Fold this protein.
Amino acid sequence: MNLDRPITVLVCALGGEGGGVLAEWLVDTAIAAGHSVQSTSIPGVAQRTGATTYYIEVFARPDAELGGRKPVFSLTPVPGALDLLVSSELLETARQIGSGMSDAVRTQVISSNGRSLTTAEKMQLADGRASSEVLMNVVRAHSAQAFVLDMTAIAQRAGTVISAVLFGAIAASGALPFARDAYRQTIRTGGRGAEASLRGFDAAFDAVAELRDARVAVAGAVEAVAGAAHETPVLLREFPAPTREIVALGHARVLEYQDARYAQCYLERLRRVLAAERTGDTAGANEFATTCETARHLALWMAFDDIVRVAELKCRASRFARVRAEVRAGDAELLRVFDHFKPGVAEFAALLPNSLAAALTRWERRRIARGRTALALPIKLPSHTVIGLLALRALAACKRLRRHGSRFGAEQAMIERWLAAVERGAREDAALGRALAECGRLIKGYGATNERGKDNLLHVVEHLAGAAHFETAGARTAAIAAAHRAALADDAGKAFDQALVQHGVRPRPVREQPVLWVRARPGGRAGGPKRKPVDAG
């Protein structure tokens, strides 16, 4: 922070959101802290000429250090000379950036990701909304640091208006030289509604502070791996510059998940994809997008969630600290934490060798086929006790056994099938390789959601990536991208099957699903449930 010039802040708020109150709070906080400050405002109509803007300049040094001198302030913001851009609506944020207000080196941007649709968007016969993803890319590309939150949801949970949430985000950004208590004292003196405003302020402050801490941790991980690269040149130097950050983060995630050998496997897989991409895109015009996307989704897939991973995360000291902060427990207060688990046969079989896992799974399927409920073991574990914590740590220590479990081998085999398709596609066409790499996004969640995502991905790999009826690589790429979007459209998979048929590929085979039949007696209670395998079609 340059202490010899004003700190410039532009606040953009829609009607009824308390933008004027927010500007007054900023002015009052600065005055109470002994700083010279000036505020001006320009009214606007959000759907035509933009939101009402409030421009505030705060001199960085307190008046006590100026020796009686008075700073000279500007009445209007200068494009590219803002230190902080604050907006309550995402399109309005992008509009101000489009006017040149934000500088990619200097300006911090605080924005809600909520949308208030413009008249032009509402006039469209179909979906005329501007893409939030495109707007987010604009914000990221033209800001030194961006904090984008669902501030409307935070305000609703706190029972306050969005101005209090924006105030908390501004305080946490560190753009102004005031302590947190100084901002909170300003709200307290506001009288009516102060408690709700403080709840919104604190929630936003904590959310932005968490984002800042996460970014510091990410930067530290990148620097650590980059530092290791200087000692071990083969780690990152062989990867092109656009890929190094995501590769470093993925390597750190996989290393923390399992061990150095597993992290080395991650890098070896990426080397194969990089070699294939260089073959299909010799000029590097695609900026190694296939390798970047593969690095992202490969790290997430290789670090799949299982009961060992869950136990490891739950017994960390940082987790207990976060829970204590969430419930706002004091240092002198006792906190009891109970973790509820309900592992089934799949979770137990995942850690067993293939032969034992297969036998256990077959036994469970026979039980279900006879109308039994899927076996599960409900556990209520007091994690705050010595016994509970030791149980979590004992389960987390099974990390070394993970490699010998049936699920680990199955996951690695599926990963290799996906990577083989990515390599073939990257050699043939840069866009095709990227489309196949982006399909790794289908792998998410756990349980049935995770299994469904893997089934969809493998179906794309086998029946679209390898189909022979596409005349060009562009047609194959379009089909894969359409199937990818459709697979994320609904859980039932109807859109996915329609997209497959549309591009000349048979839909997924229908699976047997257990249907629960309840026998009801006239005037009496329903009888016990019965399950019968039926054709879901």
